[in-house]
Task: inverse folding
């Protein structure tokens, strides 16, 4: 299976940067400590008026810093824009393999790497310092896996959307910035979305960004009903279909205009 | 001086050839910072304060820290991207000029797209100063001191950037260090230092002295503690740290002279 | 003008492991071996000389140039360029020398050529009057006027090299180091660069040190050649010495319709003959046998369908010294 080989290859490429990434992990943990400190400072003496106490928020930030490496920090535009710029995309689209799967499986390999060498070590740092939540119910683990997997699919799709837009705009830096800001801001990276001001807090629950960070974190902390997975599933399906359709449009556009 | 102006105008004109790109990137860079601050505002609106600091007070810290790091990113872009000179072996071409490599680096380029972030920081500062509604003497003192605080912040940031860049003489690549020495500390300095655990505080007041640029003076200016000496610390620390980083930089260059790697 | 006295440059090569941690562990480890990139080199280049500094890749050419220009400091020995030590007084020496790296431009990539010159004028504190004289003179010599207002990234390789050469001369240095100035250029561009360098050396009396892989550069320009290999000087003499020592063979490749049955074992002026697949490769001495008469000779042996003139490879020339 060609896509499985792509996943493996991309995993091995990333393995070469292991040590540089470990130093980066320390910085990532510090970011986490800063967020935790802010929440501890904010909630001090006010825990009664908040749905979450300091420990909840510590667990929340710790988990979100870990999952950020699976569904937040993806390659900008999945590098599709480079192919557009140098024209290689015409060949890639013409290959017998599916372009969407070809691109996304390479990113998936990188994420597998991120899980082992970013998320797990960062999680360990938190576990040894401020604490890391351990899900209590055996059945939760199944839902966590599904939720994280769907989060990854949603995020890969969002990044794919940014990348493939290069076929029409050539420059994706701007789109990537916006996408990332929305993902981090409305996805609940630092602030759980139910803390957002009134209309936003309801709206964001139904946006795909929450499905990438907030829901998997809440499922992990066993604070959300497992039904949120349906929202995630909805967005994963819609975005995948959307991307497949857009890829087809891109192919037609390139065939007509010759790149 | 004349040379500096020539170089700056040159770098401005070369940037302006990509107008659209410039506009878009400076806008989006500002936007990210804005969203970050809006989220903070959302939290503080709900919970009032973080360890005794309300939104406007934190905004003051936030503004100073963001203006400092973005100004460094504007003027120190070649220092920040110094690993290119090592990886691609371009450092040689700086050493054949009758001017010091550091002055060449500082004048080679400006990253104006970061100015969007500076504007964002200034806006946050303005909102916070208005929101604080200080009496006129305190306000006067704060406005008087703000430029000193920002300048100290820029110098501290530049020194950190230069220290990190110097590592490139040995390690070639430095991008992964920068998250550790610049991004994470300056993000932390957006918020009051008293929220952090002891070991982090120690780091931010010693090896990565970002606490001095805004927290120390603002503490005194907002009557939250400390003495008038709090106002002397930022420039003193900035200059001392600059001196150290320059020494280390020159040590790095001497190493390069003997190895050329 | 340029004096090197028992010049040495040794590099400690640490056993590096790959990757990021490798650069750290090699920082701490003491395991290393010493490479003598430049090993006891001495020479004295007088004012107005045009010296070719040649040798195979990795022989120590660029290490020497880097030491002469103050980028690297020697491990042992001393250097004087225009009467100063580049190690101790790098910035002063920088004002007296011009350097061109053929592989790498020193112009501002996104700016018009004129802007690069303006910046360099300030950097080297060239007075206005001298600067205008410079622009006029170099427009005459290099015809840079026609693309003065074009951004450097849009120039052709040949134009850029002309720009780079002019940029190196802006402060009117007495000494010029040229590292592969003709690399990658087409024949026309090479010719115009060579005639410029000849003029620079002849009329302006500039001292020039040139490294190159192109034997034509050496033959047409240099009055003196220093050949180095493995960090040591193997020959220092005139172009005639070089020719005398090793000859400067020219190479020709001939492809015949049918492989000729009988070839003379020896022929006056032909140094070497060998078959490579169905191509006959001949090395000959142009001073003994001119190219037209060689062509006559080879066409007597059979019916050539393709003839190609090749420039001798510098690596091959150096090999012959041993």
Result:
């Amino acid at each position: 299976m060609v896509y499985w080989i792509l996943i493996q290859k991309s995993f091995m490429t990333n393995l070469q940067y292991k040590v540089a990434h470990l130093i980066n992990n320390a910085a990532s943990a510090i970011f986490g400590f800063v967020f935790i400190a802010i929440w501890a400072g904010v909630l001090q003496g006010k825990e009664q008026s908040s749905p979450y106490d300091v420990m909840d928020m510590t667990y929340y930030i710790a988990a979100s810093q870990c999952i950020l490496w699976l569904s937040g920090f993806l390659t900008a535009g999945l590098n599709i824009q480079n192919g557009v710029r140098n024209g290689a995309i015409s060949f890639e689209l013409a290959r017998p393999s599916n372009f969407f799967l070809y691109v996304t499986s390479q990113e998936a390999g990188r994420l597998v790497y991120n899980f082992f060498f970013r998320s797990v070590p960062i999680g360990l740092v938190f576990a040894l310092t401020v604490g890391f939540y351990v899900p209590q119910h055996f059945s939760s683990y199944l839902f966590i896996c599904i939720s994280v997997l769907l989060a990854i699919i949603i995020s890969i799709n969002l990044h794919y959307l940014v990348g493939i837009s290069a076929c029409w705009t050539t420059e994706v830096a701007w789109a990537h910035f916006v996408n990332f800001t929305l993902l981090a801001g409305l996805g609940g990276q630092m602030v759980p979305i139910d803390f957002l001001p009134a209309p936003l807090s309801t709206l964001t629950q139904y946006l795909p960004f929450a499905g990438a960070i907030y829901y998997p974190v809440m499922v992990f902390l066993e604070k959300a009903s497992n039904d949120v997975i349906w929202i995630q599933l909805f967005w994963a399906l819609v975005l995948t279909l959307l991307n497949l359709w857009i890829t087809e449009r891109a192919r037609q556009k390139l065939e007509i205009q010759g790149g | 001086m004349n040379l500096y102006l020539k170089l700056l105008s040159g770098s401005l004109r070369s940037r302006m050839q990509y107008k659209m790109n410039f506009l878009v990137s400076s806008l989006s860079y500002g936007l990210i910072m804005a969203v970050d601050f809006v989220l903070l505002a959302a939290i503080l609106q709900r919970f009032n304060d973080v360890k005794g600091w309300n939104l406007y007070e934190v905004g003051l810290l936030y503004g100073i820290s963001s203006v400092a790091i973005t100004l460094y990113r504007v003027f120190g872009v070649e220092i920040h991207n110094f690993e290119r000179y090592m990886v691609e072996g371009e450092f040689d071409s700086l050493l054949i000029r009758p001017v010091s490599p550091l002055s060449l680096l500082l004048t080679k380029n400006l990253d104006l797209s970061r100015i969007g972030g500076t504007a964002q920081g200034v806006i946050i500062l303005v909102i916070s100063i208005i929101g604080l509604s200080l009496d006129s003497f305190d306000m006067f003192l704060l406005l008087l001191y703000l430029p000193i605080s920002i300048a100290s912040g820029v110098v501290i940031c530049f020194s950190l950037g230069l220290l990190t860049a110097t590592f490139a003489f040995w390690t070639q690549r430095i991008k992964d260090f920068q998250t550790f020495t610049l991004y994470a500390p300056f993000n932390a300095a957006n918020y009051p230092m008293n929220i952090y655990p002891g070991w982090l505080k120690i780091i931010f007041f010693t090896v990565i002295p970002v606490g001095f640029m805004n927290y120390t003076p603002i503490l005194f200016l907002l009557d939250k503690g400390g003495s008038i000496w709090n106002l002397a610390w930022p420039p003193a620390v900035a200059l001392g740290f600059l001196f150290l980083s320059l020494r280390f930089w020159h040590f790095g260059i001497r190493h390069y002279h003997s190895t050329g790697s | 003008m340029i004096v090197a006295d028992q010049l040495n440059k040794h590099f400690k090569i640490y056993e590096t492991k790959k990757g990021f941690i490798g650069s750290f562990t090699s920082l701490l480890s003491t395991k290393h071996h010493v490479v003598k990139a430049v090993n006891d080199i001495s020479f004295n280049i007088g004012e107005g000389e045009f010296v070719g500094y040649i040798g195979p890749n990795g022989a120590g050419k660029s290490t020497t140039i880097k030491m002469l220009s103050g980028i690297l400091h020697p491990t042992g020995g001393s250097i004087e360029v225009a009467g100063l030590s580049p190690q101790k007084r790098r910035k002063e020496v920088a004002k007296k020398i011009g350097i061109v790296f053929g592989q790498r431009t020193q112009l501002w990539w996104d700016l018009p050529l004129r802007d690069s010159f303006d910046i360099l004028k300030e950097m080297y504190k060239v007075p206005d009057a001298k600067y205008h004289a410079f622009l006029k003179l170099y427009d005459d010599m290099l015809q840079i006027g026609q693309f003065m207002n074009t951004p450097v990234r849009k120039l052709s390789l040949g134009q850029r090299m002309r720009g780079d050469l002019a940029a190196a001369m802006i402060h009117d240095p007495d000494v010029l180091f040229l590292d592969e100035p003709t690399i990658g250029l087409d024949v026309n561009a090479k010719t115009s660069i060579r005639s410029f360098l000849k003029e620079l050396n002849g009329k302006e009396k500039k001292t020039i040190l040139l490294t190159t892989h192109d034997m034509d550069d050496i033959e047409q320009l240099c009055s003196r050649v220093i050949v180095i290999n493995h960090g040591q000087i193997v020959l220092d003499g005139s172009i005639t010495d070089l020719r005398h020592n090793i000859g400067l063979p020219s190479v020709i490749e001939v492809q015949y319709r049918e492989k000729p049955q009988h070839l003379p074992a020896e022929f006056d002026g032909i140094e070497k003959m060998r078959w490579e697949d169905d191509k006959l490769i001949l090395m000959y001495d142009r001073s003994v046998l001119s190219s037209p008469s060689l062509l006559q000779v080879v066409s007597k042996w059979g019916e050539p369908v393709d003839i190609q003139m090749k420039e001798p490879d510098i690596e091959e020339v150096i090999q012959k010294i041993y």
Summary: The first helix of chain A runs from residue 2 to 15. Chain A has a mean pLDDT of 88. Residues 45 and 214 of chain A are 25 Å apart (CA to CA). The interface with chain B takes residues 20-21, 23-24, 26-28, 30-31, 33-34, 37-38, 40-44, 46, 49-50, 171, 173-174, 177-178, 180-181, 184-185, 190-191, 195-197 of chain A (CB under 8 Å).
